[in-house]
Every structure is written in C-alpha cells, then in structure tokens.
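Blinded run. Sample ID left blank on purpose so nobody reads anything into the name before looking at the predicted structure. Input follows.
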Amino acid sequence: MALMPRKLRDDALAWSVSWKSSMVLFTENPGRIADREIWVMRSDGEQARKLDEVGPNSGFVRAEWSPDDQRIAYVKMYGERPELELTVESRDLKGGPAVIILSDSKLWDFYWLPDGRLIYSLLESDPNGHSCNYWEAAANFRTGEPLKKPRRLTRWAGFCMNYMSATEDSKGVAFLRSYFEDSVSLAEIENAGTQITAPRHLTVTEGEDYPVGWTSDSRAVVFASRRNGQYGVFRQSIDKDSIEPLVTEPEDAMDPRVSPDGRWVLYQALPKERGTSTARLMRVSIGGGPSELMFAVPTRLNSLACAKSPATICAIAEWSPERKQLIFTAVDPLRGRGGQLTQLDVEPSAEYAWDLSADGTRIAIVKQPDDRIHIVRFSPRTERDIIVKGRSNFVSVVWAVDGKGLFTSSIINGGSALLYTDLQGNSSLLWQQKGGGSAVPVYAVPSPDGRQLAIHSSTLSSNVWLMQNF
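Blinded prediction complete.
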C-alpha cells in the first residue's frame, strides 16, 4: 500500500518535526531570508499556536528541539549586514519567557546535541574571504540556561559548516562543509541588449567581489570586496589581472557607486562599533587617495545610485522612522545633499532594490522578491508597473544605459536568472546561474558605452564531513 502525503496547513513552511512529542515547528508566510513567526502544532495539524514573533528588520533563521523535545532553541536576527546581531534563544513549549543561550554577530549555524551540549560555528575573517570554526556551549536543556563559558573546538580555515546531525552518543557530528566564491565576470552585449557573449572571469582571487560600476572610459570595473575581514572598494582593468585598492579604511565601505562624470566613487562608511547606527556618505577619487566626508546620515541608507554623464545627479534612499516610506534625495558629488526627489510607501518588513536611470529622471524599484517592476518619473510625477511576461521573483534591477530597458535578476528553481527586460514587459534570458552559495543572486552592471556587462556570479563547492571525539 502506497503512503500518501497529507496537507496539514496552507501557506506554511515546516522547520522541524519532533517524533518524541509528535509536534511540528513551522512558520507562516515564510520570507526569502528570514521568517518573523514561529508556530507549533500537533503532527495531525491540530492545536496550532504561535510561540514567538518579531517586528520589522528582524527574523528567525533556524530552530532546533532540545534533547527531551520540551524546549526549542532558535536563531533570532536583528538589523542588517554588516551590523547584523544574532542570538540563540531557548523557549519552553509550555510557555514562559525566552532565555538567551549565546549572542554573537558571527554565528553561522548551531545544533543541540543529544547529551545537552550546544555546538555552533562562528564566522571568522581570513585574507581570502571567510572561514568558520566550531565552538561548544553547555546549556541546561530543561531551562535553557547556559552552564559555562563556551569552548573552541576547531582551528580550520577556508570553508564553513552547517546542516549538522549527530550520533546518538554525541561523539560524532556530520556536517556540510562548503565554500562559496562571489566573483565578477565580463560579457559583451549583443542584439540591443537581448543577448550576451559567454561570460569570462575578471576577478581571479578567492573571496567576495561585487561589481558596482565602471570607469568613464569603460576600460575598468569598480567593485566592492570583502578582504581581511572588512569591505573595501577596488578597481580592475578589463585586460589585466591586478587590482587597485580605492578604499581600504578601517570602516566598512558599503554600496559604492561611480559619479556621473566618472571622477568619484561615493560610498557609505559604517562604523565598527556595535549598536552605532550613524553612517557617513563619503567620496574618494576614482584614482584613489584619501576619502572625504560628504555628510552624515542618521541610519544606514537603503542604497544609493548615480546617473551617467551628461546627467550630474546621484540619489540616496533613506527609510522613514517606521520604515513605511523610502525617501529619495538628490546628491551632488561635490556639493552634497540636495532636495527630495520623491518618496514611496513601502512595506516595513520588506526589502527593496532600485536604480536611477542614466538620465537621472526615473527610478526603477522592485520589492524582493516580486512579480513586477515599479517605475517612477520625478517630474512630472508618474508611476507605472511593468509586469514581465512569464517571469516573477525579481530581486534586482539595473537600468540599461539607453534607458530603453532593464537588466533584472529573477530567483528560479536551482539558482537565479539574468534577464534583459524592455519597458513593455518583454524579457530575454541572458544567462543563468545554477546553485550558488551566496545570499546575493546574479546581477549585472552595464558599461558607460553600453557594450559590456560586469556580472556578479556565485559558485558553491560542498561535501559531507564527519567530526568525532571532540
């Protein structure tokens, strides 16, 4: 007799099943990166109740049963990278307050062993990107209270670990060992943007590289990169292997963009101090040198973007205090903050990607992930939606240089797709990234002459390992 699956609940994602207590942990309305509610129900779908929830800019990303299945432990995240804060909290299924077992912004994964120990991996910086190592924390699985100071278990380099499982005696842990590389590739644009040549690698070092712009002569790519534990800005000629550092300050340089005239790179400088929300908008010469302060902003910007010459405008997007609006403001690379361009009502719990058109008159914005692209013209103010035929789950949008279309990326089964979409909603598949270990999907930035694309791609290498007698 064949076993038939049975639906327990609509619009829910199961996290974990306890066979001892016949209970199921799940989330309703699951998000792309993090979920905002934890629920529990019986294995027959009855007696569903909410255990915990968080507000905007927070979420849950992982949950585990205690050895006796009477408590759960879960990862709660607050804020945004690189200022993300992560805690492992425990909660009794019968009720009561949550208990914090550990708190570390570098937390990568954790697992509650059958003998009551908590094993977890922490992200560590290394010259080529990042590595992870295992630590052990003892916790009272009946109360969730930590029992002693955490103990380091490994000193590895070059990879990270997650998806753990353990033997019944807790002497062996199997895990997925993985390494991912975010790199920049180049391709030639053909047939008015509807086709590209096969991409070839530009950056050859292992690590995290994200293309953000080009020099004005279309001969070098400007990219953000995480090296030696922090984010900086670099450039590389399209016919050379060597890279040139532009920003390597002690603070993280985030969201860099090239000014319309190609003379400057604008970026956000984020402080290293935990709990400090103030950011600064900076500029640095495209040829390198000392950075210069433009102005401070009360919180981290959603993002920034720049038009292309002969336009002269850049723009920043700032959240309103309740995250109910995105406020777009003009920025001059030399004079600083200008007047408000427009503002949009948004969902407080959603994330958005946007870009400024090459002539500086419009923005394109997508809610991640969504099935439409929203276009706003500043003056006279007009708005329209582009429904892309046969495509959905858009997560990025970048204007083509001629303003007649957009380079977009869409989440698909097994990876992400790079598309060219015209303003009538017709799309052409340019390239497909299968798999990928990065939270950042494939996307592309066109050169000022409109002939080339700098493409972000991600590759993942992984296999299963066993650690014993630790």
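Unblinding after everyone has recorded impressions. The radius of gyration is 24 Å.
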